[in-house]
Design goal:
The structure holds 2 protein chains of 2 kinds. Chain A is about 30% helix and about 30% strand. Chain A is an alpha+beta fold. A 5-stranded mixed beta sheet of chain A has the order 2-1-5-3-4. In chain A, a hairpin with a 2-residue loop joins strand 3 and strand 4. The relative contact order of chain A is 0.27. By secondary structure, chain B is an alpha+beta fold. Chain B is about 35% helix and about 35% strand. The longest helix of chain B has 18 residues, at about 100-120. Classes of the chains: A alpha+beta, B alpha+beta. The interface between A and B is medium-sized, with 17 and 26 residues.
Chain lengths: ~90, ~150
C-alpha cells in the first residue's frame, strides 16, 4: 500500500483473549479513521473477535486519549480498543 | 496524591504509619479502605485476574482522586491498586486519606472507592468452579458513583 500509514492496535481484557495477542500492527490507507481501522481489524481477527466486539460497547483511545470513531489516524498512532471497565 | 499500580502486595500498617509521619502535627484523621478478593457467596470464586492499560489506568485513577477531593480539604490521598493474578483472600486495593478533620478523610475515602468501581480503567476476570468470565459493570456501582456527582457534599 503506497503512501499508507502504520498503526498499532492494543487489545485488553476479553478482546485480548479473543484476539490472542496484546497488540497488532495494521497498515491502512492514508486518511483512514478509527472506524476503518476497526473494520480492518475485524477482518484480520475473525469471527470470535467480531462477535465479542459486537457484544459489548467499545471505546477508542488514540495515543492514550479517548476519541470518536470518526477520528482520522496518522502514521505511528497507537489505538486502544477499550471494553467496558469493571473498575477497582 | 500518590497512585501506584503494582503486582506486589501492600502493607496497610506500613502505609498508614508513613502517611501519619508525613503529616505529623496537621493530621487529625486517617481513613483507610482495603478491598479483598472474596468467594462472592454462591459464585465460589477462586481467583481474580485484573487487566490494565498502564498509562491510562494510572491517569484514570489520578482523575478519580482529583474529583473525589473537590470541595473537601485533605492533606493526602494514597491509592495502591494491584494488577495481575490474585487469589481469594488477597488484597486488591488500598485507599488511604489523611485530613485535619475526620469528615473530610472519610468522605473522600468513600468517594474514591465508589468512583474506582466505575471509572478506573481496569478489567476483572473471575475464575471459579464454573469456569472464568470477564465481569461487566453493575448498575448498582454506577448508581453509587452517580450519587457522588449529583450530591457531592
Amino acid at each position: 500500500m503506497e503512501g499508507g500509514i502504520d498503526v498499532t492496535v492494543l487489545f485488553f481484557a476479553s478482546l485480548d483473549e479473543v484476539a490472542g495477542c496484546r497488540e497488532r500492527a495494521v497498515r491502512l490507507e492514508e486518511g483512514s479513521t478509527v472506524r476503518e481501522l476497526v473494520a480492518e481489524v475485524a477482518t484480520m481477527m475473525g469471527e470470535d473477535f467480531l462477535r465479542e466486539f459486537s457484544r459489548v460497547p467499545i471505546q477508542f483511545a488514540v495515543n492514550e486519549a479517548f476519541v470518536r470513531e470518526q477520528q482520522v489516524l496518522h502514521d505511528g498512532d497507537t489505538v486502544a480498543l477499550i471494553p467496558p471497565v469493571t473498575g477497582g | 496524591m500518590s497512585v501506584r499500580l503494582q503486582t506486589a502486595d501492600f502493607d496497610l500498617a506500613q502505609e498508614h504509619e508513613s502517611m501519619r509521619a508525613r503529616h505529623s502535627g496537621r493530621c487529625g484523621a486517617i481513613s483507610s479502605f482495603v478491598g479483598v478478593v472474596s468467594e462472592r457467596g454462591k459464585e465460589h470464586v477462586t481467583g481474580l485476574f485484573i487487566d490494565h492499560y498502564p498509562s491510562m489506568t494510572q491517569r484514570s485513577i489520578e482523575c478519580i482522586v482529583e474529583r473525589a477531593t473537590e470541595s473537601r480539604e485533605v492533606l493526602e490521598v494514597v491509592v495502591v491498586h494491584r494488577v495481575g493474578q490474585l487469589r481469594v483472600g488477597d488484597q486488591i486495593v488500598l485507599v488511604l486519606t489523611c485530613a485535619e478533620h475526620r469528615a473530610d478523610a472519610s468522605a473522600v475515602c468513600e468517594r474514591v472507592i465508589d468512583l474506582l468501581k466505575t471509572e478506573a480503567i481496569l478489567w476483572k476476570k473471575e475464575s471459579g468452579v464454573r469456569g472464568s468470565r470477564w465481569l461487566e459493570p453493575s448498575e448498582r456501582d454506577h448508581a453509587r458513583a452517580r450519587g457522588w456527582v449529583t450530591n457531592p457534599g
